[in-house]
Amino acid sequence: MMGGRIIPVADGAYGVFAMFSFRPGDDAGPPPRPLVRLGRDGTASDTVWEAPAPKFDQVEVTSGNRVMVMMAQQSFAPGFHWARFSDGRFALVDGPEYDIRILGSDGIEQLRIRRDPPARATTPEDEAFERDRLREASVGGNVPGAEQMMEKRLEALTFAEVVPRITGLLVDDQDRLWAGVSVNRPGETDRIDVYAPDGALLGEIRAPEFFPDLLFGEGRVARLTADDLDVQQIVVYQLVEGGSAAD
């Protein structure tokens, strides 16, 4: 299957292949994640980049007389973030460091963008924060034993040794690269660095409310959210240079 977003182009689309299955006791993990070009018929024709396989651990959770065996991705494992420029180049990050690769349309590296802060070691406070976040996000309803099972799963969480810095990459309508940066809390965007197409730093957005899901048309951004009833919404903001976002 295709994992994450897909970017359409004139002769097809680009996306990341994601395929994984396992049986209890297997040592095999997921395969690497290739960024590929798809033709109009859905056939993969070219591989632009192959990101390392994410780290998974086999976890067994027991609650009462129920046993659940699952492959769980390590919390804070580096994501595979990528974006495409209008000239066919790609920006991507597949590790924990602030290290953005700029590739030509042929997949050959042209430029690297590196900046502070470096990836930092995962702390017990980070682990507790992540467990609390997942606990608050879970909805057990009235299913018997659901809360106990959730606590068992939280106890079984495993964590990567370091916290990644990049939270997302996007290219806007002027071919500027937006890089979300985690400074304090794991996975939260505390700063957005904006780069020119040649990799020169243009500026920073300090303490952003969120990292956009989409950038488009004359400084507008979109955010995918849900209301109190969990109904999905698309909220559009107009960016004001030197100011803050307004509805």
Helix coverage percent: under 10%
- CATH topology-level fold name of the largest domain: Neuraminidase
Top CATH class of the largest domain:
Mainly Beta
Q: For the residues shown, what is the average pLDDT?
A: 85
What class do helices, strands and sheet pairing give?
Answer: mainly beta
Q: Per DSSP, what share of the residues sits in E-state strands of 2 or more residues?
A: 35-45%
CATH superfamily of the largest domain: TolB, C-terminal domain
How many individual β-strands? Answer: 19
- N to C succession of SSEs: EEEEEEEEEEEHHEEEEEEEE
Tell me the Rg in angstroms.
Answer: 20 Å
Number of domains: 2
Tally of contiguous helical segments: 2
The end-to-end distance, rounded to whole angstroms, is: 35 Å
The CATH architecture of the largest domain comes to 6 Propeller
User: Quick one: overall form?
Assistant: globular
Q: Quick one: biggest sheet?
A: 4 strands, antiparallel
Query: Which stretches are low in confidence, meaning pLDDT under 50 for 5 or more residues running?
Result: none
Strand order of the largest sheet: 1-2-3-4
Give a brief rundown of this model.
The protein contains two helices and 19 strands.
